[in-house]
Amino acid sequence: MPTLVVLRHGESTWNAENRFTGWTDVDLSPAGEQEARSAGKLLAEETELHIDLVHTSVLTRAVRTANLALEEMGLSFLPVIRHWRLNERHYGALQGGNKKEAAATFGAEQVKLWRRSYATPPPALELDDPRHPSHDPRYRDVAPSALPATECLADVVVRVVPYWEDVIGPELLSGVTPFIVAHGNSIRALTMFLEHISEDDIVGVEIPTGWPRILTLDDKLNFVKGRYLGDPAAVAAAAAAVAAQAGPVSA
Question: Which alpha helices (DSSP H) does the chain contain, by range?
Fold first, then answer.
């Protein structure tokens, strides 16, 4: 049966500082490097799993997570495809800001809406803002109209699903086992699409850093089952930590 492996990058330096990162290119923290290596070790223990190639975003934290995990698996030779469509969602004017400070400024409910709702994006960046992706040379070949100034999860679904349909899906149908190393929201978008999760229910789905998940599909690429590797309690605790980053939501 077609098998897909997904992994959210290890903790980044801005994850550690509890900042909105989005398309800002930051590196892994020391803890994130260890998470990436641990993920590779967990995957190496899956003796029935045979990964054929890797997909990452174009952001350093995903690239380095993939490299470190592959090193632990003894698979550094695998081909790697990098694409902006697997980037984290763009957090607009929130990028660089502290999540708890944002909650104090705008209210916890508003920040939760920006972070986890399906269709409400944060305030957008102006085109002349240096944080706008049009100023980043890695996107020089992307049509300007495709570059976001902010995104909600619905926007991420719109850019991730075509990559699934055009690239990853055909790979799976040809017998390839891909390994996707991406971000919390690009993985949430793909999870929502594959598992038919509703707009309301996706609000409660958290993707922990550094824990691999194996998805089994049928021959028509319908979702059959998914499982995280590693201790279930540790995975749940990591997901809960992600949910708590902006602080408790007021009643």
Answer: 13-16, 30-44, 60-73, 99-106, 108-116, 153-163, 169-173, 184-195, 232-243
DSSP state at residue 66: H
Helix (H, G, I), strand (E, B) or coil at 80: strand
Nearest-angstrom CA–CA distance, 209 and 182: 10
* Residue ranges per structural domain of the chain: 3-243
> Is 49:18 a contact under the CB 8 Å cutoff?
no
Query: How far apart, in whole angstroms, are the C-alpha atoms of residue 209 and residue 49?
Result: 21
The alpha carbon of residue 15 and the mean position of all alpha carbons in its chain are separated, in whole angstroms, by 13
> Residue 5 pLDDT > 60, yes or no?
yes
CATH class of 3-243: alpha beta
3-state secondary structure of 98: strand
Supply the DSSP string of 179-191, one letter for each residue: EEEE-HHHHHHHH
pTM above 0.85, yes or no: yes
Active site positions, annotated: 9, 88
Residues 6+ apart with CB under 8 A from 32: 9, 10, 11, 12, 13, 15, 16, 61, 65, 209, 210
Confidence (pLDDT) at 243:
75
